[in-house]
Amino acid sequence: MTENLQPNQESSFSEEVKPMPLIDKISGIFLSPSEVYENLVQSKPRTLDWLVPLAFMIIVAILSTLLKFSDERIKDSLISFQAQRFEQLVEEGKMTQEQADIARERLESFGGAQKIFSAVGALIGIPIVFLIVSLVYFLLGRLFFKVDVDFMSVFSIYSLSSLIGTAGIIVATLLSFLTGSFFASASPSIFMEPSSSKLYQLASKFEIFSIWQYIVFAIGMAKAFNKSYSLAFALVFGVWAIWIVISLFIPFG
Q1: Rounded to whole angstroms, how far apart are CA atoms 50 and 150?
Q2: Which of 94, 97, 102, 166 has the highest CB neighbour count under 10 A?
Q3: 21 found inside a domain
Q4: Given pLDDT bands bounded at 50, 70 and 90, which one contains residue 11?
Q5: Within a domain: residue 217?
Q6: How confident is the model at residue 105 (pLDDT cuts 50, 70, 90)?
Q7: Which of 173, 204, 224, 172 is nearest to 33 (CA)?
Q8: What residues make up the domain containing 68?
Q9: Residue 12 lies in a domain
Q10: Is residue 22 part of a domain?
Q11: SS3 of 14, please?
């Protein structure tokens, strides 16, 4: 006598989902992120899922900075921009002329020590950013979606999405060599003269690869918290919009 299996009984006998090979995850983030995150959530994240994307971004960020400073035209564009900013700070009484001159001299003499400092900055700063962003979305996801999701799932989802941001750094570096501007990026700001104006800063926020990354990240959040894409997109881009407003009106250095 054959018994009829209920859906939940049948699933209990199904094979455990095998993790997608890392190389497939890397390519899939660009081509089919939904499949990548579906597999990640069902098979649980592994260390390489977050470590490799993180390492990629650190390496590319360091190389980008060193390449830009190796080109005199790009380096001069940064010095010119910073010189204007230093003068503005002097006029506002936030910096003395002597401090401005010292700061400019240090920038012009960017050498071995400064390169090491930049490398260490990327090595420490990027992981901290990854942790903070992931923690914010992890806590907000738990708060608004009321779903028990572990932190490493969100961290791995964000890390994998950062592969798109890494591609953005590569494109921005190429654009810098094409335009001679240190601040070139795939955003509307590439058509504007670099400045500290809020309009320029706002335009630079709408960078194609950053938006693409957050779209992919939202897809991953929807999969992790088992919510609709609309809710995940509202959370991800809502926080992103708030961050843009904060960064425009509150100086961070």
Answers
A1: 14
A2: 166
A3: no
A4: very low
A5: yes
A6: confident
A7: 224
A8: 47-249
A9: no
A10: no
A11: coil
